Request: fold
Amino acid sequence: MSSGPQPPSRDGPRVNEDIRVPQVRLIGEDGEMVGVVNTRDALHRAYQAGLDLLEISPNAVPPVCKITDYGKFKYEQQKKANEARKKQKVVEIKEIKVRPNIDDHDYETKMKQMKGFIADGDKVKVTLRFRGREMAHQELGAKVLERVRTEMGELVKVESMPRMENRQMIMVLAPK
Reply:
């Protein structure tokens, strides 16, 4: 036997006979503190109540155990996990494609879309595509992306500055 308390062996807390320590600090089924008792006595009390002995904090000395219904405990844990999962927001990356010689009206429409995505908490990847001879005038593309950046202003932080990848310039914006 090792000297310190053993961590739970499987996933989740140890229950009933899995608790192999001589003494435990016991909490009764109604939540009142019983105190330090022999593990055998604690198990006996749990069985008499028709419940389980559940290890709550395994690293305490002696470990804290509670008399409770293990099935109900597992159900509550699952419910908590599901609630946490529901509240989680998955951040998506939305892509907006623009051209170096974009028309003002098209630009306004794209800006409206970007602001909507940022408001929803998503990241926006602005892709500026160069075709043919437009490659010779990359400064026009840089100006368009700079305009996007200044208009979005306080709403976003620039996650990756405009950079060239093959025939396109890419910038990623994230909500603040």
About this structure: The longest helix spans residues 70-87. The mean pLDDT is 85. The CA atoms of residues 16 and 53 lie 5 Å apart.
